[in-house]
Amino acid sequence: MGRVTGSQRTNLLGAIALVAALGGLAFGLPAINRMLPADRAVRMDRPYEIGGGVTVVPPPGARIDVTETRPAEDAGTVLFRLGPVRYLVTVQPFDGTLQTAVLRLRQRITGTSGYQVTGTELTVATAGGLAGVQGGYSAPGRGGRYAVFVADGHTIEVTVSGDDLDLGRTLPAIDASTRTLRYAPERTG
User: Fold this and answer.
1) φ, ψ for residue 149, nearest 5 deg
2) What is the mean pLDDT of the chain?
3) How would you class 154 by CB atoms within 10 Å of its CB: exposed for 0-12, middle for 13-18, buried for 19 or more?
4) pLDDT, tens only, 37-83
5) Residue 45 exposure: Cα atoms within 13 Å on the Cβ side
6) Where are the alpha helices (DSSP H) in 48-186?
7) SS3 57
8) How many other CB atoms sit within 10 Å of the CB of residue 110?
């Protein structure tokens, strides 16, 4: 065997340092991520920008689940949690009618095993003038409500789910929040 040169020793130490850094990233970052809470406090004194020009004022006591929230320019999703109740608002580009948007959401709900749409659908409106349709659904051990609005090439879908007791306590605040949905695209000069 030959001798190890200084250059080879430097290369070996560099390779070991690189492997250690990659190991730290591969194991350290996920460990840090797991230590951080998934939900964060949210200001309730101003509208939250979801995406696509849509905003909503969060209900009192809501927290944002950052693992499911994705605000973006032309689309977006925000998941608020009120204790065990989920309040999800999704904005997506959409080229269709309100009835088509409602049918699409209902099919996604009933496409999940055990989920079924219940009751009568009602027309609803937001304080900002968005007209929509609202309905209910049930799942094993859970209940829910949905609402759909269409605004200038976007669909705004609201789904709420939780057990009956928690839903009964939080629905008035969620309904009030849903009425604050507003579509106000940025105007370019």
Assistant:
1) -135, 150
2) 87
3) buried
4) 456 667 778 899 999 999 999 999 999 998 889 988 899 999 999 99
5) 0
6) 98-110, 164-178
7) coil
8) 13
Q: How far apart are CA 121 and CA 96, in angstroms?
A: 19
* DSSP assigned state of 110: H
Distance between CA atoms of 162 and 144, rounded to whole angstroms?
A: 6
Q: State the Cα angle at 96 between 110 and 111, rounded to 5°.
A: 10
3 or 60: whose pLDDT is higher?
60
Residues 173 and 120: beta-carbon distance below 8 Å: no
Q: 177 to each of 26, 136, 182, how far by Cα in Å?
A: 40, 17, 11
Digit-coded pLDDT (tens) for 15-26: 787 777 777 777
Q: Pull the structure tokens for residue 74.
A: 């032309």
- pLDDT of residue 9 exceeding 60, the answer is yes
Both tokens assigned to 78: 């925000």
Radius of gyration over every alpha carbon of the chain, rounded to an integer in angstroms: 23
Beta-bridge partners for 87: 80, 160
Which is more confident, 7 or 120?
120
How is residue 180 written in tokens?
């604050």
